[in-house]
Automatic annotation (TrEMBL):
Gene3D superfamilies: alpha/beta hydrolase. Its EC number is 3.7.1.9. It holds the Pfam family Abhydrolase_1. Signal peptide: none annotated. The keyword Nuclease does not apply. One of its GO terms (molecular function) is 2-hydroxymuconate-semialdehyde hydrolase activity. It comes from Handroanthus impetiginosus. Keywords: Acyltransferase, Hydrolase, Transferase. It is an enzyme of class 3 (hydrolase). Residues 190-299 form the AB hydrolase-1 domain. This is Putative hydrolase/acyltransferase (Alpha/beta hydrolase superfamily). The keyword Hydrolase applies.
Amino acid sequence: MTVKERIKSVLAIIGRLLNECLSFMVFTLLDFLDFVLCYVYKVADFCIEAEWKPCYCCSSKEVITSSGKILVSEPGESKIVRLTSSKLQLEEISDTLYTRPSLLSDVSKSTVTRSLSRRIKRRRGGVRSTFTVNSTIVEMLQGRIGGQQTLPIPRWSDCDCKTCTSWTSDSKETLFVKVDGARDNVREDVVFIHGFISSSAFWTETVYPNFSKSAKSKYRLIAVDLLGFGRSPKPTDSLYTLREHLEMIERSVVEAYKVKSFHIVAHSLGCILALALAVKHPGSVKSLTLLAPPYFPTPKGEQATQYMMRRVAPRRLWPLIAFGASIACWYEHISRTICLVICKQHRIWEFLAKLLTRNRIRTYLMEGFFLHTHNAAWHTLHNIICGTAGKIEWYLEEVKNRLKCDITIFHGKDDELIPVECSYNVQAKIPRAHLKVVENKDHLTIVVGRQKAFARELEGIWKNASG
């Protein structure tokens, strides 16, 4: 090793140690701030809405149900059975919603006790089973029991502008969908699924305008705003589980547009939904294109959900994108405050952005970042990214064994949020998948900035799949 290499190695070690030390101090302060904000929001919710609103950091983990109507999972499983007005539905929730280890959370949970624990016993073949559920989830779902639907009114800390609440006026039960391309004599459909804190504009403002006339005459392009994001519904009582997201995509796209067979293009968190959709409709998928899929194989002995949370949100100051992910994932009330400042005031931020840039830049990425609620972002992040960590290997096995279509993976080599190793992990599970690592591109610029090239690559994938 040369002297120069030794110096670099020493500086790297010092940098890592400094990052760890500063991160420990900063995140300890953030733990305390989130603890304080918990009670600030409780008081604010009570004063403004005349009701104590549930949160995960102070609720007991061993609490169950209201009137014996919501049954929950057996110990060790993050599932609850939800009784609606017509049927029982199985919801799958991530334990990371209410188990995020920190010094203050451990202290608060030992001092702030709630006498909400009850027990329900039901007979299943003559055997009695005990069920438990997090009290916050019970409180959120109470409004759906027996058909008593919670009114689709935004909370005081959510935006109530026309863009954010238009879906409530006519009781829409479908997602916002942007369709382009072929209208008559549609040969094939393409479904685009965006990532976390984004919208259909991630596709419609980038690759849509860059598809060739030939492609637009053959393919019907369908980009969807996921539940809770963009211009889609943002129900306040939803847990934004995998089942809810999938059902809404099926209702809004597959059923509404009578889609029989289709190509899928998905980015980041959307890759998980794409895999689940492909597994559910294995004979209908003609090609599967994944961009930056978040797949970290869980080491033996580790709990999948907690391991995924630590990988995606490592509680580090650097890189900055990891710091942002850590804030969003670990701090329920700080992230709510950020939504209060940014999302509720999105019209002001959009105006300032256009004013400062003299309207020279398109603000579609900002709009995708603004148009969601804290409830939607918080639950989707935990229930989809973290909650499916134990399932994704099964999805990949199913895709490998049951899907006959072409599978293509794109990943930016400089992606610091979802490192390129994730795509190599996917390729290791599905050897026939074609992986393209794009130099000098990150989590967003894998599409943004190279949209023309990416549009041509997609056209080539669809053409090969059809041939």
